[in-house]
Specification:
Elements (H helix, E strand, L loop, with lengths): L8 H21 L5 H24 L6 H27 L4 H20 L1 H8 L2 H12 L9 H10 L2
Helix pairs in contact: 1-2, 1-4, 1-6, 2-3, 2-7, 3-4
This protein binds fe (ii) ion (FE2) (2 copies).
Length: 159
């Protein structure tokens, strides 16, 4: 379900998804010279995965007990796979088949997260908590500063 309210976490992340998909389609439609578009995809994708995982780790206790582990594992696995498909795109930016593989996988991943995790957050987070993450997802892109491996290490192995 798509929320119309501007303050909804759903809304901000869905906008972000649409932005990444829009750039992907743009790169697919360009005959050549899509380097600039691929760079933009890269920044949006890395920031999105980083903020999303930060949100997931911070609020994992809100997820239903019996589903928590599987939601976290599936999210991280799918993010790794997205990054893998994206690395293939970057190695050969004019290869439209690779871009399409990335797009297809992104679609299936987005369906998964809209159904579960996002809905839970939308219901459970306070306005203040949502605001904090919305600020982060709406900030100007910080180049090269989304250290997803460090984030995972800190949250998963520091307890
Ligand atoms: Fe997402
Ligand atoms: Fe995701």
């Amino acid at each position: 379900m798509i929320h119309k309210e501007k303050e909804a976490v759903n809304f901000a992340f869905i906008n972000d998804h649409e932005q990444i998909l829009r750039l992907t389609n743009l790169a697919i439609s360009k005959k050549a010279g899509s380097k600039n578009v691929i760079d933009q995809m890269s920044w949006h994708l890395h920031r999105h995965l980083y903020v999303e995982e930060k949100l997931l780790f911070t609020y994992m206790d809100l997820l239903p007990n019996d589903q928590r582990k599987s939601i976290i594992n599936k999210t991280l696995e799918e993010h790794d796979r997205l990054l893998y498909y994206f690395r293939l795109v970057k190695r050969d930016i004019d290869n439209k088949g690779r871009l399409k593989n990335f797009r297809d996988y992104l679609h299936s991943h987005l369906d998964f997260e809209l159904d579960g995790f996002y809905e839970t957050l939308e219901k459970e987070l306070t306005r203040e908590e949502k605001k904090k993450f919305l600020n982060e997802i709406n900030k100007p892109i910080k180049l090269g500063f989304y250290p997803i491996r460090k984030l995972r290490k800190f949250h998963l192995y520091s307890k």
